[in-house]
Amino acid sequence: MRGPLTQRTPMENGASYEIPLVFLISSSLQRPVKRTRTTPTKNRNRVRSGLSRRVLGRLSELPAMSLDILYEIFGHLPPSDLLSLSRVNKAFRHVLMSRRSLFLWKASFALIPDVPGCPEDMSEPAWAHLLFGGAYCYSCGAKPVTKILFSLRRRACKSCMRTHLLCASFLPKDFREMFSSIIVNSGSNFHQLRPWCTEHLWDEDVKAFHSEICAIEPRVLGTGSISDTEAILNEFLERRKKSAAYIKEHTLICVAWEKGRNADRSAVLSDVKAKRFEEIKKRFIKLGYIEDDVNRIRWHREVSTSKPMSDRGEPDSVPELSHLTCAELVWQRIEPLLIPEINKSRDLRLRSTGERYTRRREFVASQFANVVKTLSPLLLGLSPTFMEFLCASRTLANAVALDSDPDNSALGEQTREAISKLAQELETRRQERTDLLRSLLPKDIVSKYATDDEALSLATSVYECLSCHQILSGLHMLAHRCYGPQKSRGQSPQFSEKGRETVVALLSLIGLGRETTALELDRRSDKFVCMWCPLTSYLGDETFSQRRPVRDWRSCVIHALAKEHEDKDTSASIPRWIVVGETETAGLHWDGDAIFGAYSCMHCPPRLERRYGYIEWRGLEAVKEHTRVEHNKEMPASQ
């Protein structure tokens, strides 16, 4: 008989023998000798993700608490916090999604005044998810989707609404009565999608309705009389009609609650914006600005944002800034961004009122113009306008505005100091942009021995600015000044592989290699036609009623990236581009000298007297004509 501390082990011949468990336990406790590591660990310096050990230590005991304590804690949380807790781990989800925790959700909804009650066709967690679960589309996950479609019990983006909504206006009358429980009145939610359709159906609701019909089909087929069949169908339709009436009534209550909630939220955000503006105004007035100057920057994105000045991490987290308050930390960040804007406001005000200020401003402008004339073309493209130069430095702007020295001696010294800093900043900015553009070029198309200027001057170096979506060659992108949206203002280039392929195709047509520069192509003035474009009719042209546009190589690149021929079969026998001569362009429409050129006249006063304060880039032929007519010069000094 086998003892309690033994284990019977079978043998090969069918017999068995007993081994004391103490040997098994002792052998299992002996850890095998590890092999010495000879290679370094790959992920030794890997950054850990998730919560820190300190935070995990505080929360690790929470799931192990008794339900009474957890229920007491959860009873004070709003529905949004309960939803977040249910998504932490399986233990919390098991507790909160149980029917025994239904009282928690009801108590949670009671904490929010005037919130609509949970509808009969939804559970409390599902209702909380619809109201407070997140502003995203239930079908594709797109964000943000702030509008709740209460009649459909979901959130949906415009793209999914176009896909899933079915027009119910063309249903026959009999079917409309049957589908009345899931037909949704369009209202203002869907008017922009289908203004000609007044009522809609959601395709998933139609499928669910069809499933309910199939569920009662056995009962209908099992009846022996027509009266029983009609009774079953009438009962089903009456139940659906009552559900439709309830959904419609409940939707009106929810819409009214949502309007009031949005109004309250707008009032709160407006109050936060007003307090933030007042705090910024006080700080600028202490710096010597007046209220009218501050009011001009009220709608700047750093001023009109709905975040309080104290909405930032605790300053104790950074030892060097532990002596500063949260508001002072925010001010340190936004002050350099707002100083140029408020200086521009003061400059516009003083130019219209003070003659003394105008003379001092012209003195600084003359010093700036003398320096700008000595800049190289690329540095000129990177240089700021005079307005930006004057307003970027608070010291120089205050020296011009406050008028503290009658003989302009201090003003001249500060101007020379600002100009000396400008030259260094331009060189640094040029090198940073050059390094960025060179790093974006594929290594297989540019020799590693080529200099930065040689690599960027190639015609195959084509970039696209992600902010303003301009298609530019390398050197033009180096001097590009982006006027995109305010939030994305700044240079954000991206190498265009499709643009490079277009240039390579054009170079092969005219028999040039890939080492050809953009300037060499511009001087050749070759003209191309896209044969994928259809023949177009032009009104008022009786000689050539239909024709295709003729483009220069830059216009061809822009046209190729315009995505007009995405669905074109590239394997077709029709060539994409053909070269046309001067005699062949008589019946074709010229579309050359792209809107965004790459040259500018250097004889004109640069960036100082122009209305908008930036270089006007044009095509090479346009610049040649300009210099011949305006400056009586045949060969322009152009960039």
From TrEMBL:
InterPro entries documented for this protein: F-box-like_dom_sf (IPR036047), F-box_dom (IPR001810)
Pfam families in UniProt: F-box (PF00646)
Start and end residues of each F-box domain: 59-108
Protein's UniProt name: F-box domain-containing protein
